[in-house]
Structures
1.
Amino acid sequence: MTNQDWLVTNESQCIPLTVVSQDLQEDSCTQPYRLYRFLTDVEDILWQKTDDRLRLAKICPLVRRLLNSSEWILTSFGLPDRETGWSVQMLYDEPDFALTVQTVAWSPQSISPIHNHATWGIVAIIRPLAELNL
Ligand SMILES: [Fe+2]
């Protein structure tokens, strides 16, 4: 996994993102970093920080930690639809709570036109589907 995180601006500029490491508890290396802890940590950051760039700098390491710790997420995806070339698996979505966590699987060679979700988000590219030998 490449360790560089990138910030893509509204102007489509890609800027290397300097992340802010979290102080980890002593047992954090031996205990799984579970999805519910990730969500709580992200919510804490959203309450504490108002600057979106700083929020992303603090949340990106948590995403990396979650993916490294929760192997089940790496296999929690649906096979891409034959027509659209992609699938979405919702891992977390709660009414009246702004965070969602999804895994999206794309078929090789599938493309998505440039579009805007009108909010920030974090995309972690896990692995090309072709490498999974499905
Ligand atoms: Fe999108």
2.
Amino acid sequence: MKVLAIIGSPRPRGNTYRLVRMIEHRLRQQADVEFEYLQLGEADLRPCRGCAVCLERGEQHCPLDDDRAEIEQRLLAADVVILACPVYAMDMPSLIRVFMERFAYCMHRPRFFKQRALLVATTGVAGIRETLGRLAEMSYTGMQIVGRVGVATPSGPATPAECRAISATADRGAALLRKALLSEGYPPPTLFRLIIFRMQQLTFSLTPEEWPADHAYYREKGWFDPGCHFYVDAPINPLKALIARGLQWLMRRGAVRDVQERRSTRARRWWDEQDVNSEG
Ligand SMILES: Cc1cc2nc3c(=O)[nH]c(=O)nc-3n(C[C@H](O)[C@H](O)[C@H](O)COP(=O)(O)O)c2cc1C
């Protein structure tokens, strides 16, 4: 089993890295695992320029020539991903934010279904819950989030109470990973996930011109097929599937009208002219 630990701190040997190493050490005592680290501070992953080419035409057209494609291959090769970062200004640091933005196309075109993810955060005092919550948005790429752990770390020598808290957090992280490694298949999706699937399915089926890469990807995966309820084979609650399908049916007419209105020349011109018309 392969674990890829992504360290989203500019300090490659900082508190976050140390906590992940503690988790690794504990896990190695319980399971046969291969660990690999990706230090975002040392990777060539440049900030998104906002051209949206990856979303519209495909990630292969991204103008940034850096490690993005190689990192995607490393993610796909992993069974488990540890997404780890410190809290900066009550949120995730820009390094890991850049990572998430650069993989935003995978939120349109999810692919990391095999990967189970453990989320890890360290802080001085506060912000753990918020930061772990932001990291959890990576689940839109298909990743199964198997747990979240976070702890306050000392800026200098640790008190006995801090040592206990950090050790307990590492124990919990390792236990969550061990459980994840033993689990097989994709867990039953929640109603929310089924609805998201149906909303994306509806949107991308109607917009081959606006979202050609997404449309082609959904077609290739068979996600437009009438019998397709979700991205992957998973045990699906029939009632939840029915509710998601029903919501899609209810939204269909409005979505069709919306696409037609957006395609009208008037709609295009109005928005493009706002920078010229507005005062200031
Ligand atoms: C720029 C910066 C901003 C920080 N902001 C916060 C914060 O908002 N709240 C907090 O409790 N700790 C904050 N910290 C403390 C770090 O979260 C904490 O020391 C963390 O464990 C550092 O991990 P690292 O060594 O892996 O970078 C901040 C540290 C830095 C360098």
